[in-house]
Amino acid sequence: MGILAGVDIESDADLQARHAAFSQAMQQLGWIEGRNIRYDFRSRPVDKPDLVRRHVAELVALAPDVILVSGARNVEASQQATRTIPIVFVGLTDPVGAGYVEGLAQPGGNTTGFTAFEYGLSSKWVELLKETAPYVKRVAVFREQGSSIGIGLWAAMQGAAPSLGLELRPMGLRDVAEIERAVVAFAREPNGGLIVTPGGLAIGHRRLISALAVRHRLPAIYPFSYFVAGGGLLSYGPDLHDQFRRAAGYVDRILKGEKPADLPVQAPTKYELAINLKTAKALGLEVPATLLARADEVIE
Asked: pTM of the entire structure?
């Protein structure tokens, strides 16, 4: 089978751990690498999106039984390359809105998988940011320019913000240079905070974003725990390792003859809250004890 990763698997320890979780789950289902299954990996540096189509073409040419995909750009390229090889995705934000599947219950076509978020989850980002930094009144919401994903997430945030006295400002970003310009410009006014929504640009440059947020004293919340491991203040999002383990179940069923069109797209079942106390200290924040008690991971 083919596995198309979003970033360079040799340099991203978290991605390696996710794929290890998938391989272990496959072993438990009876699929042993080198005995009855072979994995063909393709990955790329985040700053080389042009490699996506080449990697997809290489995988499709191998005629795999299934392609496991993470990242919206990789899903899109895979669907353009094949409408017959089954595709299982992991961690997408809005597969219906992006047009990757017809619906969650009946995905249709050759693609199914696991979403990263239910829309209402993004209202928790707003609430957690306010709980961590009560003085915040303005929130910049980083979104990748031109991306069709995340529309439902944005709507849920807008619904939650007024009752918390927050003004949301969407920031559409196209490249790494815009990230720094946007942070610097937004930080000129006081009482600001930052919500970073999922996307290849934010994921690939997460250390830069977290460093800029600290430098300009902007409390920020992120969608995945590895942002916090890289210096971000706090995150709330799905347990991606669990999603890769669950993806093994779908791959197993497809290898045994089931069709992706008959396997409903599933939402996360496990979410995790991560907090970086070193970053909180650098920002002059005292994280509420009630929040720390709810955290799944605390970095000190």
From this structure: 0.85
